[in-house]
Amino acid sequence: MAVSEIQKETFINLLEQIRSHVQLLKKQNKELSRENLKLKSKLDEIQNEQSDIFSSISESERIAMRHKISGLIEKIDTHLEGK
């Protein structure tokens, strides 16, 4: 059974459409990869600029804060044990 010329042409056209679409997707993927790298770089830059809340306070302030938090935890424990 021979394939008609119309079927061959249709197949070739569809194959070309698929190739074109694949090329477009590859191009988009490349562009998105570049954009992703830029965004990752920007995120790293922002994270490096930020500091945690403890790095901006002195050691004595940290100890005082730790003491306050421990006191609050004790009060919560006492309250929960009373129920």
UniProtKB/TrEMBL annotation:
It comes from the Bacteria. The keyword Coiled coil applies. Keywords: Coiled coil. Residues 15-49 form a coiled coil. This is Cell division protein ZapB. It comes from Rhodohalobacter mucosus.
